[in-house]
Amino acid sequence: MRITLNVWRQKNARDAGGFEKYDCPNVSEDMSFLEMLDVVNEDLIAKGRDPIAFDHDCREGICGMCGFMISGVAHGPESGTTVCQLHMRKFKDGDELWLEPWRAKGFPIIRDLTVDRSALDRIVASGGFVSVHTGSAIDGNAIPVPKPNADLAMDAAQCIGCGACVAACPNASASLFTSAKISHLALLPQGQPERDRRAINMVERMNAEGFGHCTNIGECEAVCPKEIKIENIARMNRDYLCASFKKRPEVKRVED
Amino acid sequence: MSTASQSVSDAGPLARFLSSTLGKKTVMAVTGFIMFGFVVGHLVGNLQVFAGDGGVKLNAYAAFLKNTPALLWGTRIVVGFSLIAHVWAAAGLKRLSNEARPVQYKMHKHLQSTAASKNMFWGGISLFFYIIYHLLHLTVGVASPIAGSFSHTNIYGNMIASFQNPALVAVYVFAMFALGMHLYHGLYSLFQTLGLSHPAYMPRIRLGAKVFGALIAIGFSSMPVAILLGAVK
Lengths: 256, 233
What we know:
Chain A has helices spanning 33-46, 118-126, 147-157, 164-168, 175-186, 195-208, 219-223, 231-246, and strands at residues 3-9, 18-24, 69-70, 73-74, 96-100, 109-111, 114-115. By secondary structure, chain A is of the alpha+beta class. Chain B is mainly α and 233 residues long.
C-alpha cells in the first residue's frame, strides 16, 4: 500500500519547525506504525538525510515511551492501542497522514516527534513515599483488600504515563494521568497513611508544571491506550477537596 | 522546590485551594449550582404569565418580591456574588488553559466530547452579555425596546410590549438555547468536579442534566414565543 506522510520536523526546542512530506510507496499492511517509520528512516539515512526522531522502547504497548498524533488523534485511530501496536492494516491505500508531537507547555519538544515528559515523573515524585513494610515478605492475606477495590486499583495502575491524555485534551490537562496515579494508591489500604498529603502535593505539582484544568469533556478517556476512566479524575477531585479542608498545619521540617 | 511553589505553601489553606485549578473548578461547580437553583425559581415564578388572567397573578408575585426585601435582596446578593465568582474562576482557568498549549495542532480531532462541553466558555460569554442586557431590559428598564414605557409595577405589561418584536424574541430564544446547552454540560460536570461520581449514577446524572437543560431552555423560550404568536395577550 502507498501512504503519504506529513511529518513535523523540528531540530530542537528553539527551532520553529514545520511539516515535511514523505511518499511511502511500499508499505506492508503487516507493519506496525513504528516499523513503517523505521523503513522511512532507513531510506532517509541511505540518502544522507536526518532520520525522523520518535520515542519508542518495548514496542509491546506496555512501556509508555511511544506516542504522537496521527491526523489529529493521539496514538492514531485504533482505540485502546499505543502507536507501536497500531498496524498499517488500519489504514487505506493512498491515505495521507499528519504526524505531530504531543503539544503542551508541560511537554517541551526535544526533536521532531519526541517530547520531554519528565513533568509527569515530577508529578509522581511529588506524591512522596508510601508507608509499606519493606522487610521480609508479609503474609499474602495479612492486609484485607476487597476484590472490587483491587480491580479498580489495577485499572488505574495500568497507566503507562505516555502522555496521550495531555495531548488530546483541549486544555492540555494532565488530570487523567495524575488521577490514575493518585487513585491506584488511594484505593488500597497501603495507600491510606499518606493519602491526603499525596493528593494535595500531586495536584499542586500538576498545576505548577503548567498543565491546564479539566473541563470534564472526556477526550483523554477516548485516546488512553490503557482505557483509564475519567471516574479517576472525580476521585482525585474528591480526595483533593477533602484533603484541602481536613488539612492541619504541619510541624515545620528543618530543611526545605 | 521553586520559590513560586514555596510561596503557595506559605499561603493560607483557602488561598492555596483557590490558587489551584481544582479549587477554581470547585468554585465554578458550587456557584453554578447556586445559579441553577435561581434559574429554576425564576422560571417557576415567571410561568405565571400563562395564568390567563391578564397578568394579575404575575404582577402580584412581582409586588410580593418587592415587598419582601430580605428575599429579593438576599437572592440578588447571593446570585450576584455567585456570578462574579463564576466569571472570576472561569477567566483564571481559561488563561491557564491558553498558556498550557502555546503551539496549536495543525489537526486535532475530537472523539467523544459533546458540542455543549466544548462551547462552555463562549456559551458562558454569550450568557454574560445576555444577562447584562436582560437586567437593563426587564429589571432596570432602561434598554430598548421599552425604555420609555417601562413600568416597575406592571411587569406583565413590560413583557407583552417587548415580545411583539420578533428580533428581540429571537435574541431571547437564542440565549435560552445557550443556557440549556451550558446547563446540560454544567449540571453533569459539577458532579464530576466535586468528585460525586459513580458508574451506577453517572448515566442518570447525564440524563438528568439533559432533561433539566432542555426544560429550562424550553420553559423560558415558551414565554416570549407565546407572546409573539399572540397566545398570551
